[in-house]
Amino acid sequence: MGKIFTELFVHRYRDLDPNIRMSCIESLGVWILSYPSIFLKDVYLKYLG
Amino acid sequence: MNDKNAGVRKTSIIALQNLYEMDENVPSLGLFTERFSGRMIELADDIDVDVAVQAIGLVKQLIKHQLITGDDLGNLYNLLTDDPPEIRHAIGALVYDYLIAKKFNSSESESRGEDDNSSKIHLERMLRILDEFPPNPILITYMIDDVWDYMKAMKDWKCIISMLLDENSSITNESKTNLVRLMCASVKKAVGEKIVPAIDNRKQYYNKAQKEVFENNERDITIAMMESYPLLLQKFISDEAKVSLLVEIVLFMNLELYSLKRQEQNFKNFLQLIKDLFFKHGDKDPLRACVKAINFCCVEGRGELQDVARNNLKELEDLIIDNLESAIREVKAGGDEYSLLVNLRRLYELQLSRYVPIDNLYEDIVMVLCDVRNMEDEVVGLLLQNLHFDLAWSLKFVLDKESVSDASLKTLLSKRDTLLQELEYFVNLVTDDSNEGDKSGSELGGRVCTMLAETWCLFRMTNFSKTGLERLGYRPNAYVLQKFIKLCQQQLNVSDEVEDDDVNKEETNRCAVLVGACKLIYTAVVPKDYLAPEIISHFVMHGTGVAEIVKYLITFLKKRKDDLAAIFLEALKKAYHRHTVDNSGNDDISSENSFSECKNLAVQINTTYIVNLA
Hints:
Distance between the termini of chain A: 21 Å
Distance between the termini of chain B: 44 Å
Oligomer: heterodimer
Largest interface: A-B, 19 and 23 residues
Number of strands of chain B: 0
Strand content of chain B: under 5%
Order of helices and strands of chain A: HHHH
């Protein structure tokens, strides 16, 4: 999970295509909801902000 | 939330909404909220409507979790009167939950208030909010529209009525006016009427289920009002602001129920009260509301009740005519003009919507116009206006009939000539050089201008050619047309430097004069190059209303394939001529302003010409 985040999410959430950025944010929202023990932390939340 | 793409911002807000939805997540979101709550509130005013609506929902969650306070909301409430209805309604939901139902306040939660009194409590809170609004009925209507969907208390007719009728209520008079506004607006919403102007202005269509809901609401309103309507009218009969709104509620009631539920006496009572208040007030709003209500009862009342309404109207007409006869006698004897003025206003409001036989009064009106030349402008304007309406209605009857008697044609012609003679007298009077610059004549001047144009259009030759009624056709002579144009110019040139209160009045007057003049061009009463340049030379000088009318005229001229270039050039010449004449003895600043107006006109005409060429 961590690998997906560091190697995929952090690059693609700044993608040129807004659809990809949107997809990233949507997925992050789902991850935080599904795995709050891992993702409900400011270090991940900041990407929503 | 800071992405340049609206879709990304919206996704982010929705993700956050899902997080804040679960109470157990809130403690872990503390630092994040502290850092980003400002941005979340900012997004409520986002350029994208969807983002703004979602952000308002998010802000509502923050308030619910007490992560922000009312003070943090800043200017968010200004969005209550914002343009997109989606944003207004989202803020309306927030206001309802937070300030009216107080759902987020644990000590005053909905569960505690949910007893018999909850409607009253909610309405009182709503009134407190409305009290803080500037005393502008339009803003208040917006607020009511925003909250209406969420606030059941606004549909608790019995509660609203009892609050209005309560003699010991602590509500202030101003709040009661707001409560009447709220009731009237809520009644309109409940039966599917719009209370704020829609952006698209298209007619709204409702499905069967919606129509059924509206009918049920109409029924509920009528039943709730039946017994208390006369009491409300009686109580507020002297209060112009309240009573005008209350009277309008009739239009949204199902009058058939008065017959079905054997409430004829209440029907008669409220009709009598409407008649009483028609004669108690003299201003436009209450008078117009009364006329609408009485007309509605005459059409929508069932069986015997319709007869009652018609008799009531007949009595009202007779009474106005009696009052006018005695008022005219009084004025001729040198007495006060007030009674004549208010009764003319009443007759005017009636004649706006229906024919009132004033044959007995006709001679008196003409006589007072000719004999008493020093009456107030408003009185003169109303006398002429009532004559004009009578003429227009008489013409309509003649045109509607299959065969017309010679006598009725003669009467109509004599009425037409009398009115035109009087109007021409006043055109001469108002355009008289000794009167120029006298602003007091401007309202009468505007009225005379419009009536002349209307009458010429009604009786234009082309209307009657090949109808057997050619005798009715009329063409103004060159002298009167010249005077008319002079009066139009005078009206359009009335200084823009009027007091704030008068600005709208002047603009409306200018628009009315322009519409009248444009009609003469549309209906070919005047030669085509006669008035158009004069009108176009005022294109950018007096605000949007005037500009819109001129745009319509240009489109019309283009469709008629007129020589736009020549007309535009003439318009520019006229504007420049005005500038040179008006500023011959003036200071540099006003001369500079007037010249820059000419330059603006040239730019606007240039753009319009190029667009029309394309």
